[in-house]
Amino acid sequence: MKTPFRLDDHPRRAHPFSAPPADYFDRLPTRVMARVQPGATRATGLGWLLALPAPLRTALASTLVLGSFAASFFLARPAAVSTPATADATLAAIPQTEVVQYLLTSDQHVSLNDLTVLAATDQDLTASFLPASSPELEEALESQPIEDTYL
Amino acid sequence: MEDQEILAKFADPAARNVAFNQLVRKYQSKVYWHVRKMVVDHDDADDLTQDVFIKVWNHLGNFRQDASLYTWIYRIATNECLTFLSSKRRKFFLPINDITAELSAKVEADTELAGDEVEMKLQKAILRLPDKQRLVFNLKYYEDMKYEDMAEVTGTSVGALKASYHHAVKKIEQYVNEQS
Question: Are residues B36 and B54 in the same domain?
Fold first, then answer.
C-alpha cells in the first residue's frame, strides 16, 4: 500500500525552481542603481511617462488614440463640404463687366428685361458694364428712331 | 550592515547611493525568491524584483520604522506580486484556472523539477491555491517567517494566517494524494 503524502515528511527545498543565471545577483545591484539614478530615466526622454501610474498611462494612451482618430476624421472629410464658400468667393472675384460681357456674347439667351431687372437691384451696375460716357449715350439716344421710344 | 545603519546612511544624501547598494545586496536574494515562487518565471521575477527595489528607493525616505525594514520590503514585494498576477488576469481576461494552467506549464518546463515527480506534484498543488493563501503558504513553509512578521507583511491577523496555512497544507496534501 502506498504511503499517503504528508508535507512534513517531504524534504523541503529552499528554492524549488531552477536558479537564476550565475552572475545574476552580482549584476542586479548595478542594474537597480542604474534605474534609480536621476539621469537614468531623463536620458530616455520618456522617463516622466514611465513614472506615471499605470491607469494614468492607459488613459493618456487612449486619449492620444482618440485624438488621432478625430484629427484623421476631420482632415479626411471631402473637400466638397467647403465648396459653397469657395465658389461664392471665386464668383465674387470676377468683375461684373466680364460677367455681363460673357452673358451677352455667349448663347445664354439673356434678355434685355433680365438686364433691366439686374440694373434695378444694383444702381451702379450700368455705369460699370457700359463703357460709355454721358455725351455718347445722349448721341445714341438722339439717333434712335422716334417710334422705338416710349414717351 | 544592520538595517539601522543602512537607514542612517540613506538619510545622508552623500552616502545614500552606498547605503542603497548595501540594502539591495542584503535583500536581493530574499526578494527575488519570494517573487519567483509567486510568478514562477525568472524574467517576470527579475522585472518585479527591480520594481520592488525602485519602490523601496522612492519611499525609503518616508519609512517610519513602525515595522522592521525586512517586513516592509516584503510587504512591497508581496503587493507587487499580487498586483502583477491580478493585472495579468485583467489584461488577458483569463479566469483563475487559466493563470494556474499557465504557471503550471512553466513549472513543468523547469529543469530543476525534472525527474522529481512528487516535487512536481507539490509545486502544482501550491499553484492551485488562491494567490493570497499561496503567499501565506510560501512565507511559512519556505521562509519559516514568524506569524507576527507575516501579519505585518500581509496586513492579516495572526489567527487568520494560522488558519489559512493549516487549510493550505490540507489542500496540498489532498491534491498530491489524489494525483498519486
Answer: yes
